[in-house]
Write a structure and sequence with these properties.
Blueprint (H helix, E strand, L loop, with lengths): L2 H51 L7 H7 L32 E8 L2 E7 L5 H11 L7 E6 L3 E4 L29 E4 L11 E4 L12 E8 L1 H8 L3 E3 L6 E4 L3 E11 L1
């Protein structure tokens, strides 16, 4: 074989070897890039789950906003609310023969004592079950509407939350009128009653429709309601109503007393 042919063959071999090395480098970079992309995706998913999905202590955004405020009336903030919900309320057999049932609600601005009636209603049984389960502890009054009433006990802190089930509608007679001190379960329409409390505190409550399940009446603590209404408020998001407290009025605990 001539020197010229040998040189040509060696040149072609060198070119093929160079191409093979370049192809190997491209494949390596491709695999590294794919692996890096998978790794980043796994990390991103883990971060999203950690901070937005699986945290057992995660709270609704509006509730978090209230947590960042000072507690009202010079009080200390209690432990945050539980995130537990329920499929249905458990029966409360001691209510059946009760002559009197009261709820003592400790708030940032003082105590409220409510006499619950009628004691055998689904609304009272649900409220008592949730209170005994600690559902209301650490919740807050998210709406304080002057001369109307105060709203609270909702885990979402905006009136849209649910304890995990709905309480059947059990509205009062058509001639019923709300008066200061009347306590009811708030709702957003038929079939939406849950755990949110409404306590009438002013004359404007008389204009409310009778489409709320009644829980009872405040028998002690009118001064607490007055202290709540002294808390400064601002406009609620998405409304023109100035009723969003700028200091957080917590429900610290609810104690049920049943007298046979």
């Amino acid at each position: 074989m001539s020197d010229r042919r040998r040189a040509a063959r060696e040149g072609r071999a060198a070119v093929r070897e160079a191409e093979r090395k370049r192809a190997s480098r491209r494949e390596l970079l491709k695999r590294l890039g794919f692996g890096l992309g998978i790794g980043l995706a796994i990390i991103l998913v883990a971060v999203v789950v950690q901070f937005f999905g699986s945290r057992p202590d995660s709270q609704p955004p509006r509730y978090e906003e209230y947590l960042r405020q000072d507690a009202a009336c010079g009080a200390e903030a209690p432990e945050p609310q539980s995130t537990e919900t329920f499929g249905q309320p458990e029966p409360q057999p001691d209510l059946a023969d009760a002559s009197r049932v009261t709820a003592l609600i400790e708030t940032s601005c003082g105590p409220l004592e409510i006499e619950l009636t009628p004691t055998t209603s689904a609304s009272v049984e649900s409220f008592v079950f949730l209170a005994r389960s600690g559902y209301y502890d650490g919740t807050m009054f998210h709406r304080v509407a002057d001369d109307l009433g105060v709203y609270g006990g909702d885990h979402d802190a905006d009136g849209t939350g649910s304890p995990g089930y709905r309480v059947p509608d059990d509205f009062p007679p058509s001639d019923f009128r709300f008066e200061p001190g009347v306590v009811a379960l708030d709702n957003r329409g038929p079939g939406t009653t849950g755990a949110t409390l409404f306590i009438a505190s002013g004359d404007e409550a008389a204009a409310l429709p009778n489409t709320h399940n009644i829980l009872g009446t405040v028998v002690s603590g009118i001064e607490t309601l007055e202290a709540m209404e002294e808390v400064h408020v601002q406009t609620q998001v998405g409304t023109v109503e100035e009723s969003r407290p700028l200091e957080t009025i917590y429900i610290e605990s609810v104690e049920i007393t049943v007298e046979p």
